[in-house]
Amino acid sequence: MAKCAICEKGAHFGISVSHSHRRSNKMWKSNIKSVRVKTDNGNAKKMYVCTSCLRSGKVERA
């Protein structure tokens, strides 16, 4: 599973509980995209970035 290169957000694990209280394992996946990002020296690099980092302006697309 990919992690965000900026905030290191990844998959979260827990237990899903139904109405009848039957428990099963659950995984919540982060919304992570592979995007081309401008680096500090002006070059473009492909990175995995979550959409919350893209929206907040923590990275700049190439």
TrEMBL record:
<dbReference type="InterPro" id="IPR037147">
    <property type="entry name" value="Ribosomal_bL28_sf"/>
</dbReference>
<dbReference type="InterPro" id="IPR050096">
    <property type="entry name" value="Bacterial_rp_bL28"/>
</dbReference>
<dbReference type="InterPro" id="IPR001383">
    <property type="entry name" value="Ribosomal_bL28_bact-type"/>
</dbReference>
<dbReference type="GO" id="GO:0005840">
    <property type="term" value="C:ribosome"/>
</dbReference>
<protein>
    <recommendedName>
        <fullName>Large ribosomal subunit protein bL28</fullName>
    </recommendedName>
</protein>
<dbReference type="GO" id="GO:0003735">
    <property type="term" value="F:structural constituent of ribosome"/>
</dbReference>
<dbReference type="InterPro" id="IPR034704">
    <property type="entry name" value="Ribosomal_bL28/bL31-like_sf"/>
</dbReference>
<dbReference type="InterPro" id="IPR026569">
    <property type="entry name" value="Ribosomal_bL28"/>
</dbReference>
<comment type="similarity">
    <text>Belongs to the bacterial ribosomal protein bL28 family.</text>
</comment>
<dbReference type="Pfam" id="PF00830">
    <property type="entry name" value="Ribosomal_L28"/>
</dbReference>
<dbReference type="GO" id="GO:0006412">
    <property type="term" value="P:translation"/>
</dbReference>
<keyword id="KW-0687">Ribonucleoprotein</keyword>
<keyword id="KW-0689">Ribosomal protein</keyword>
<dbReference type="GO" id="GO:1990904">
    <property type="term" value="C:ribonucleoprotein complex"/>
</dbReference>
